[in-house]
Amino acid sequence: MSLKLSEEARKKIIDMLNEDRAQELTAIIQYMGHHYEGEGLESPPILELFRKTAMDEMRHAEDLAERIVYLGGVPVYKPGQVQRGGDLRTMLKADLGLEDGAIERYRGHVKACAELGDTTTRLMLEKILSEEEGHADAFETALGRD
Ligand SMILES: [Fe+2]
Ligand SMILES: [Fe+2]
After folding, report:
1. Is 1 within the bounds of a domain?
2. Which pLDDT score, from 0 to 100, does residue 114 have?
3. What's 13's domain CATH number?
């Protein structure tokens, strides 16, 4: 490994990426669940938004796992608490909550990677962060401004 990171920095980054990965796994299961559970409800475009967003989260979970392995860690496989059920509005609010949490967390982790001197991980997290902002925006738009 050509990274000039201390053992301590490497461990910190692996832990952060695993925290992010657990949340991505939560989002995948939650959004896919909303995609099937929303069947029969009124809005095909919103169901498609759940499906499409879940696929983005799969890419994020995979990118995080690849980086964790590269850094010598073991990727987590356990998601956090998934929110299920309710009408489309309830689902969208739950999903927006996950995205807001993700944005907050990725901002913190981008900053931490900059401080620890891991530019590659920081750039990866910045790219994911910008996609999470897009997701939050899409869920907000679907909810309408109220
Ligand atoms: Fe994500
Ligand atoms: Fe997202």
Report:
1. no
2. 97
3. 1.20.1260.10
Which of the ligands is closest to the CA of residue 136? 2
Distances 96 to 11, 39, 67, 106, 144 between C-alpha atoms, Å: 30, 20, 26, 15, 12
Q: Which ligand is nearest to the CA of 135?
A: 2
Model confidence pLDDT, tens digit, residues 56-92: 999 999 999 999 999 999 999 999 999 998 889 999 9
Please check the confidence at residue 146 and state whether its pLDDT lies above 80.
no
**C-alpha 35 to ligand 2 mean position (Å):** 15
Question: Mapping DSSP to helix (H, G, I), strand (E, B) and coil, where does residue 81 land?
Answer: coil
Taking the centre of ligand 2 as the mean of its atom positions, its distance from the CA of residue 71, in whole angstroms, is: 24
Tokens coding 115: 């401080």
Q: Which ligand is nearest to the CA of 106?
A: 1
Q: Where are the beta strands (DSSP E) in the chain?
A: none
Residue 131 has pLDDT above 80, yes or no: yes
Q: How many domains does the chain have?
A: 1
CB atoms within 10 A of CB 139: 24
Distance 140 CA to ligand 2 centre (A): 12
Q: Of the candidates 91, 80, 99, which has an alpha carbon nearest to the alpha carbon of residue 47?
A: 91
Alpha helices by DSSP H, listed for the chain, are: 7-37, 44-70, 88-116, 119-143
